[in-house]
Amino acid sequence: MIFKFIENLGAKALYYLSDLGRMGVFLFRVLAGVFKRPFRYRAVLGQLREIGANSLGVIFFTAAFTGMVLGLQGYYTLRKFGSEGLLGSAVSLSLLREMGPVLTALMVTGRAGSAMCAEIGIMRNSEQIDALECMAVDPFRYLITPKFVAILIAVPLLTMIFNVVGICGGYLAGVKMLGVNPGAFFSGMESSVVNRDISMGIIKALVFAVLIVWICTGRGYYVDKIDGAGYGAEGVSRVTTQAVVLSSISILVWDYILTAMLL
Amino acid sequence: MTEPIIELVDVVKDFGSQRILDHVNLEIYGGRTTVIAGGSGQGKSVTLKLILGLLKPDSGAILVKGRDVTAMGRGELNELRSVFGVLFQGAALLDSLNVFDNVALPLRERTKLRREEIRDRVINTLVQLGLVGHDEKFPAQLSGGMKKRVGLARALQLQPEIMLFDEPTTGLDPEKTLEIYQLFFETQRRFGYTSVIVSHDIPKVFNLADQVVVLNGGKLVAFDRPEEIQLCEIPEIQAFVKATMGHLYHSSDLE
Amino acid sequence: MKKFNLEFVVGLFLIAGFSCFVYLALQLGEVSFFAGQKNYTLAADFDNVSGLKEGAVLEIAGVNVGKVDRVVLGENDRARVYMQLPREIVVYEDAVASVRTQGIIGDKYIRIIQGGADETLQDGDFFTETESALDIEEMVGKYIFGDL
Questions:
Q1: pLDDT tens, A99-141?
Q2: Do C113 and C62 reside in the same domain of the chain?
């Protein structure tokens, strides 16, 4: 009984260790794919549309309402201390440093990350990846690297769009609806935001982008090697759920780590 | 006799605690058609993947044209793979590309041919395989038989010496099955490749076979002529033959 | 509706993204292509600027006229504060810079009380007179121990 327990524990530990190793090798091969020729420019463009342009609607709505809610919450909290004038800086700083990068990354995970994972998982299950390998086409360069490059470009840009739309949302709620002085709103914003806030947002966005593409495509790529995933459509759906949960958690964990490091 | 083009030497492959291949030896000679038969889950597809270097055996060696696949690095393996053309079970066409782009893929990625040359070659093969007018379709719009044809067209682009077919007739009705085998026969005559067919389609595939190999319980039994399999004494193989061929076996036995 | 082609859609997305980035960088950050022409820098030494942050507001008569650029440790362990003001704001030579608090919990800012001298401070000049931040703890301490 106890022996069995220890055996199971060992097997689990071995599994997680090799899983981690596999993901490490995966990331390495994706990075190596960036330098391999021919580079697939058109595939990168296609992915930019998929990840970037097609996410604009989601990002726009999320950002607008996040900004408005920040304006509302900020207003009622700051009013208690008689400093509604700080609303502009409260909204812009929370967006630039936290809400923008984190919510953008979570939205991209939900929209593009899950799709990527399922796509790669299905390709693995229907032997499309084996077929590529048999044609001596590097599946990393061919399939994953375009996604990797595209997401590294798309997420920071989406984050910037999120920030601007969010600030407009905050302005709408704070100034137009609650009557904060527009001059105070903007001057507070301009005086409190420094370059580092913006660069911090970009660094976060880049790190989150790597996390999303790494975890989502990696899970899909190894759909046949993951414990309890099983084969066929069920395996792909399980692995996709796992990928979305894992990347969302790692985004939040890394958000904390990066904030602690960069502040 | 000449050197075998593919040789499996004492190959062992386990999946978890299950032994799929148990000290298997196999020789496949150039220019001929070898059929690997056996019930499902007996390691037929695994054998193909081992030959392609997609899986590594737990022990033993796999020689392709005298070179050991198991000891190769990624670069060497890629080089060797140009020898092979593979038709996968579900044809494994890329979903995101249409028929033309799927067939053109190996030429675009592996050769430095100009656009027009690639176009000519692809159109040429599509014509030969009866796929004219389907080049704009996506794999999801094709029937099973069509997909197989496209898969074959793609596999033939780089003029392989060896064609591997993984269950080429699963999911096809009997009529289409015969059609596909007819196609294999014609293309092999035209392109002159060595072919290895994994199939459980026992009686029909015999028409193509020069050599039949039956996998059973991790062991492999080879027959030089397809007819010999029916006279085999090993009880498992007799059972397998009986199960797949039914009374066709009995009638041929009586003759 | 005809589907837009790939390059067009991606191009649109890239332009939207970059323009948002440029807006944020120029409007909110300190990156400015006209920094040299529009602003000038003044400096002041304080005994104590506790709580004063980079980016804090500069006020003259309650009007926001600029911001704190950098806070560093200067000569004699005094705090040196660099401030940025637009060209059109003139500060006289005998003006006083003092560190003040906005509201009760508000941020620290710098209040400039204009003087009446003829000469004005130029780019890179120092304030001659400064008032440090009021340290409430220290004041309370002094009161309790009877120094006041």
A1: 999 999 999 999 999 999 999 999 988 889 988 888 888 889 8
A2: yes
The amino acid occupying position B130 is: G
Same domain, C5 and C46: no
Question: What is the predicted pLDDT for the residue at B110?
Answer: 82
Q: Tell me the β-bridge partners of C99.
A: C110
Check CB contact of B49 with chain A, cutoff 8 Å.
yes
Identity of residue A72: L
Half-sphere exposure of C87 (CA within 13 A, CB side): 5
Which amino acid appears at position B37 of this protein? Answer: A
Domain of residue A135 covers 39-262
Q: Could you list the residue range(s) of the whole structural domain that residue C27 is in?
A: 1-31
Residues C52 and C74 in one domain: yes
Give a yes or no: residue C147 inside a domain. Answer: no
Residue A1 lies in a domain: no
How many domains does chain C fold into? 2
d(CA A44, CA B2): 49
Distance from C-alpha of C50 to C-alpha of C135, rounded to nearest angstrom: 8
Query: Whole-angstrom Cα distance, residue A223 to residue A242?
Result: 11
CB B7 within 8 A of CB B63: yes
Q: What is the pLDDT of residues B183-211, one digit of tens each?
A: 888 888 888 888 888 887 766 777 778 88
Residues 6+ apart with CB under 8 A from A11: none
- Output the CA angle B239-B242-B244, nearest 5 degrees: 110
One-letter amino acid of B134? H
Name every chain A residue with its beta carbon within 8 A of the beta carbon of B89.
Answer: 127
Q: Do B92 and A135 touch (CB under 8 A)?
A: no
Measure A181 CA to nearest chain B CA, in Å: 53
- Which tokens sit at B35? 């059929």
Q: Do the beta carbons of residue C99 and residue C112 sit within 8 Å?
A: no
Would residue C6 count as lying in a domain?
yes
CA pair distance C97, C83, nearest whole angstrom? 11
Residues 6+ apart with CB under 8 A from C35: none
Place of tokens 């044209």: B65
* Torsional class of B66: left (φ above 0), alpha (ψ -120 to 50), beta (otherwise): left
From chain A, pick out residues whose CB is under 8 angstroms from the CB of C64: 187, 191
Q: Tell how strand B162-166 and strand B194-198 pair up.
A: parallel
CATH number assigned to the domain covering B6-254: 3.40.50.300
Number of domains in chain A: 1
| Cα-to-chain-centroid distance, residue C121 | 17
A contacts of C67 (beta carbons < 8 Å): 191
